[in-house]
Amino acid sequence: PINQVHTWTLHVETADGQSVDQAEITVDGGMPQHGHGLPTQPQVTKNLGNGDYLVEGMKFQMTGWWVVHFNISAGGQSDRVTFNLMLK
């Protein structure tokens, strides 16, 4: 929803389908075509177990193309996942 703070559940697993627990995850993103970031500073606030993490503080203040990046580190490895969202 636009102009509402909401939460997401992020599921993290390895390429072979194994859940990743105890990961350090940061969140960033924004609107590439507008040159600004997210209006809030979302954070992973809880490890829910089985590779699931609670992300709180997500907010989008306008329609259009958004990207959300999750930077994930666990077990000496790191990766970055990008989600493209078109909000109407």
How would you characterize the overall build of this protein?
By secondary structure, the protein is mainly beta. It is 0% helix and 59% strand. A 4-stranded antiparallel β-sheet has the order 3-2-6-7, with no helix packed on it. The chain has a 3-stranded antiparallel β-sheet with strand order 1-5-4, with no helix packed on it. It is elongated and about 35 Å long.
Order of helices and strands: EEEEEEE
Given as residue ranges, the uncertain stretches (5+ residues, pLDDT < 50) are none
| Number of DSSP-assigned strands | 7
Radius of gyration: 14 Å
Q: What is the beta-strand fraction?
A: over 45%
Structural class: mainly beta
Largest sheet: 4 strands, antiparallel
Amount of helix: under 10%
Could you tell me how far the N terminus lies from the C terminus, measured between alpha carbons in angstroms? 9 Å
From the spread of the alpha carbons, the general shape counts as elongated
How do the strands line up in the largest sheet?
3-2-6-7
Helix-strand blueprint:
Elements: E1 6-11, E2 24-31, E3 36-37, E4 43-49, E5 52-58, E6 64-74, E7 77-87
Antiparallel strand pairs: 1-5, 2-3, 2-6, 4-5, 6-7
Question: Key features?
Answer:
mainly beta, four-stranded antiparallel sheet, 0% helix, 7 strands, 88 residues, elongated, single chain
Structure at a glance:
With about 90 residues, the chain is an all-beta fold. It is built from no helices and seven strands.
